[in-house]
What we know:
There is one protein chain. By secondary structure, the chain is of the alpha/beta class. It contains eight helices and seven strands; from the N terminus they run E-H-E-H-E-E-H-E-E-H-E-H-H-H-H. The protein has one domain: Maf protein (Alpha-Beta Complex), CATH 3.90.950.10.
Amino acid sequence: MTHLILASSSxxxxxxxxxxxxxxxxxxxxxxxxxxxxxxxxxxxxxxAHLKARSVAATSFSSAVIIGADTVVSIDGKILxxxxxxxxxKSMLRQLSxxxxxxxxxxxxxxxxxxxxxxxxxxxxxxDVWMRSLSDEDISWYxxxxxxxxxxxxxxxxxxxxxxxxxxxxxxxxxxxxxLPLLERMFRQLGYHLMTDFSAQRCGDxx
Length: 207
């Protein structure tokens, strides 16, 4: 049986795969993201997603598909990653306040078969997001919740941050951190049916 491995410790990505009732393991990658100096957000997230998947695939699996993913926020051509401290988070939220920005998430799939990697596929999805105008009180309250501290752009659309998002154009799940429609399409390109081949029920019947 082919195993599904998520090369990410992100609780949001874990929750999204669980939402599809998939059976999977989590193995965090050892990629040092600070060493990648690409300035184009689409290229950056695809490169990091691939490096994360490759890092985990290198540990050798007899039969598995590895999912690597990376998300960044971009505004005015500037990439916003995760904040380093509360003041950094507040600064990013001020930049996003009342404006449109883009969220890019890259996904990389690596198929492992008998110690080899016969299939590798990497792609990216972009979503436009409009954030309403935020007061200093809004920003201070939000940062005090600690929700922004582990999120690209210093906000999460799936929790408290949802109150700040006016509208989006594109995939909602992409903003959370993993575009499920793109993921499903990529698995089909590799020759798999995501919800059938990796369902928790199927694993329970055969594992």
